[in-house]
């Protein structure tokens, strides 16, 4: 052993003995957002706040850019105990039907409305649905209001989507919605989208500004159409059994911190909407879509969800009545 390695080994031993080497528990937070995205900002703020409170009890470590897996893989890794937190959004509609209510176009009007919906549905509907599948929701954050980018043409009305190969998340209701609009929806993991756009495998995609800009889609897309067709929350998700195995004080800190971070998420998201649109306007041709035309074309999706999902109509009515 060299002198340098001997000193390093002795230093490590002294740190271990002193109890200041590292946190007792490492808590991995995986998400698919790129650096600079709302997901990245949200998870990093949560980690900073949580780690200040946890001290040497535990440490939250954040891994973005799908480093720990795509959304579907992260859901599996939660249950295996390989990841502590994930931040799924649209994919939750494939976990349980109840989450499909947030796939209904133009249902959520703004963040004030979303807070009312959270109060009405989180503990009574969404949490039981998640726990029935082995998960637990610590808090609701945000993915945001979604808009369409593509290389074919500006999208003003649903008919402009005719034949457009459009990437969607892996959830049946987003696919059904864009089929109703005339597009050719293609479910695909977020991490694969840039290359698919660049190579022409798909013509376009739909996401909030806070995903579009950090993922650099403006480099490979000509048109940005402001449709605001869906608002998707993001769920701070853990495995119910794995989370319950953590010490009670750690669980309390993590839960309270996840919930208090929501205010930061909403404030940051609102700022992103303004700042990132200015940035994207420098990269793509931007147009305001005819939302009334899209709302009219969305009625069959509401009807199908209400008829095919147990309690679906009641869920939609509850959300509408909270506006």
Automatic annotation (TrEMBL):
Residues 1-22 form the signal peptide. It comes from the Bacteria. Pfam families: DctP. GO terms for cellular component: outer membrane-bounded periplasmic space. InterPro entries: DctP_fam, TRAP_DctP, TRAP_DctP_sf. Residues 270-297 form a coiled coil. It is found in: Periplasm. Keywords: Coiled coil, Periplasm, Signal, Transport. GO terms for biological process: transmembrane transport. Belongs to the bacterial solute-binding protein 7 family. This is TRAP transporter substrate-binding protein. It comes from Pikeienuella piscinae. The lineage of its organism: Bacteria, Pseudomonadati, Pseudomonadota, Alphaproteobacteria, Rhodobacterales.
